[in-house]
Amino acid sequence: MAIMPIDWPTGLDIRQMAISICLVLPVALVLVTMLALVARSRYLANDCTPMVSGKSPLSILYQQYRFVVNGPALIKDGYARFSNGLFEIPRTFRFGQVVLCKPELIEELKNTRSAVASPEPWIDQLLQISHVMPGYFPKGKGWPAIAKTTPGLIRGTAHKQLDRYIPHMNKAISSQLGALKFTDTECAVGCFDFAYSIVARSGSFAMVGPRLSQNEEYIQAVKDHILGMIVTTRVQFLVPDGLKRYFGGFIGRLATLGTRWDMHASRKTLLKHFDARAAEYRNEMASGDLVEDLKTNPEQKEDPVSPVLFTIVVRFSCNAYGRVFVQVEIFRWLYENSIVNQKWSYSEVIGEMLLLQFAFIYTTAYALYGALSELAQRPEYTDPLREEAEAFLANREPTVASCDQMILMDSFLKECQRLHPPAAISAHRVCVTELQLSNGITLKPGTHVGVPSGVIQYSSSAYTDPETFDGFRFAKRAAAGASNTKLVDLSPEYLVFGMGVHACPGRWMASALMKLVLGHLLLQYDVLPSSKQGAGRRESLYGSLSFEEFCVPNFGLEIRLRQREGMRSSE
Question: pTM of this prediction?
Answer without folding.
Answer: 0.87
